[in-house]
Automatic annotation (TrEMBL):
It comes from the Bacteria. The lineage of its organism: Bacteria, Bacillati, Actinomycetota, Actinomycetes, Kitasatosporales. Gene3D superfamilies: ACP-like. Pfam families: PP-binding. This is Carrier domain-containing protein. Transmembrane segments: none annotated. InterPro entries: ACP-like_sf, PP-bd_ACP. Residues 42-97 form the Carrier domain. It comes from Streptomyces adustus.
Length: 103
């Protein structure tokens, strides 16, 4: 596999910061408006892990987050709302605006 098209850092490794600035295609379809309080909390928790605010319809895992990173927002959400938000819930609902799970 040819990796010459990736930006490299001073150590000769792939520059991850340069990758995060790459433009991603915007989701097609109508905008669903402003984020509610629950969605804003999810955005801030994921941004704390990734360093970048996710788009409302952006899949966290397609954008580079992995399951170990997903554990941190799940634990923080559990502490914030006092309800178990385990990793399986994050894996099943990997976007800010994924359908809400049953209560």
């Amino acid at each position: 596999m040819n990796h010459n098209f990736f930006s490299l850092n001073v150590q000769g490794k792939v520059d991850l910061k340069a990758l995060s600035t790459a433009t991603r295609p915007k989701p097609s379809g109508p905008s669903r408006g402003m984020l509610d309080a629950r969605e804003e909390m999810i955005v801030s928790l994921v941004a704390g892990v990734r360093g970048v605010r996710p788009g409302a319809d952006e899949n966290f895992f397609d954008a580079g987050m992995h399951s170990l990173q997903a554990l941190r927002p799940a634990l923080c959400a559990t502490a914030a709302i006092g309800r178990d938000v385990g990793l399986p819930l994050v894996l099943a609902h990997p976007t800010v605006r994924t359908e809400r799970p049953p209560t």
